[in-house]
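If you are new to this repository, start here. Below is one unmodified record pulled from the training split, so you can see the exact layout before writing a loader.
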Amino acid sequence: MPPRERRALALSKRMLSVPADVIARMQDHLRQEDLPERGMSAAINDFYARLEMVGLPPALVTEAIYDAVATSRSRLRALLKGLQMFAPDVPLAPAAPVKQRWDAWLNGKYNVKPKKGGSSRRVGIAPQDWPAPWRDALPALDKTVRPYGHRLARPKPKTKAAIISAVGLLAKSRRWAAERDIQVDCDPTEELFEVYQRYLLLERAVSFRTAADYCERIRMFFMRAGMFEAAGLEALVNITGTLVEEAADQDPGKWHSIREFRKEFTLADVVRKAVSADRSAQNHSGHTTQALRLRQAAVAYALLVNTGDRQGDLRTLRIGIEIVREPSGFWRHGVRQGKTQNKKEIGLLWPGTCALIDAHLLADRPAWRVNQRVEELYGANLLTLTEAVLNKGFINTRLKKDFKLHGHLVRTLINDLIRRERPDTLWASREMLGHTDRFMQEIYRSDFAESAAILAMDQLYAGLERAGPC
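And here is the target side for that same chain:
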């Protein structure tokens, strides 16, 4: 008997827990060539033995099973490769966290780079070196105040940091002016703001839009501090308005980007890319990072067009909290926006969006497990399926690569589409984008069905719905 045939027949005696069809595939392979990884047959046998021990069918395999078998990174690799080749119906997605832990261990052990000494990126002057009246006003950023009879809520940490940065630059502008023999008092007057504007545009060489943003932040500071006189406030408002007008006239701006987008694409192309990403994910094993990234992009693109969400809100959606799966199988969207704190009720998402979300949760698991996955992932981030949140550039990086477009401009395209198709229902665009709370998805679909972009999206989604979750 040839050696290969003898080795193939010996498999069935050593792999008592493995299903016959899996052994048959392995034997056919062994008759032609060696198994691609050492220890593969032992890892596969251990895998099925552990399933048998806990009474689980392969379709219900858990992360714990993979973790128990993966006593080393090489053994996990051998197991996953073997299941992919000889047991293609076994879901590999539950192994993803195990693989990530082993990859992190490997990187931590061999790829750690020595830390480089960082240099401070602070440009403005630190608060302890501000003029005394400004330092004394700092506590106003940590509480709700009523300096002029109107309630001003405590700013969020990120906003507070932006205000402090802007005021630090304002202090720097006074020093910059003093070096040129121009003495400016620290009171919020037109003279101080003129110096600030010149410093930002001439010395810092920022854009008109950025300069306007800095002016808005110092307005927030002095307003909270109760330091404004009417003339000073009017001067700052006028300067800010002029900067905004200059930005609209001279900066390339969003409309240039939108015009370039419209030369080649429509909103429907964003949805096509979502469907394409989902289909591409099916060509990768369920446990791989490539598959996860593709499914994340598919869900992100679909939600951008379906809901017009700000990216900060989209990145932080939590399963069962901001986005909920109804018994009917549709997902319901209800977000209180991080930027405006307005409640945004989209209602039921489009069928295709729901199908893409289901496919993301399932990966390569069977479709009937979707409800179980929703329960398991309650409170998890929708895109990462963990407690982690994707980095801020994830969506924009992909939009720039695919469409040369920023995510916020998708909101502008939606608003412009609604305005052009039905001017009498402009209120709908405000509500869809989170500025009021009356928008219902059914109205959007019925009022704007004549739009070619919406029709194209509906056709794509209908096909996706028929295909069902993967």
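Two things worth knowing about this chain: Confidence is low (pLDDT under 50) at residues 337-343, 419-455. The domain at 127-251 is CATH 1.10.150 (DNA polymerase; domain 1).
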